[in-house]
Amino acid sequence: MDNESRFLCEAIVLAHTNSQNGGRPFGALVVKDGEVVASGVNEILNTNDPTAHAEMTAIRLASQKLKSANLQGCTVYASGHPCPMCMAAAAGRRKRSCLCLLQR
Ligand SMILES: [Zn+2]
Description:
Blueprint: H1 3-20, E1 27-32, E2 35-41, H2 44-47, H3 54-66, E3 74-78, H4 84-90, E4 98-100
This protein binds zinc ion.
């Protein structure tokens, strides 16, 4: 299995696990240089934060870990098609992250 497939599978497993734990079925990873920098799941229900989508959660954590809002060179792997908010966050100005997606 190549890295893209492996990371997409990891995002799907996160989504499935989150669903089994009562959350919404969405997971995401931020990867840089072939390594997972951060992962996230949809946390809307347990945080009451309407922006706590899996992609946003992973991007926030990756930015904290990398100590930079610039995620140049990172790739976001998502278990579903990102909404416009997440797409904008992943592809924002000065970032070169790209998305590998699975359609719902
Ligand atoms: Zn979103």
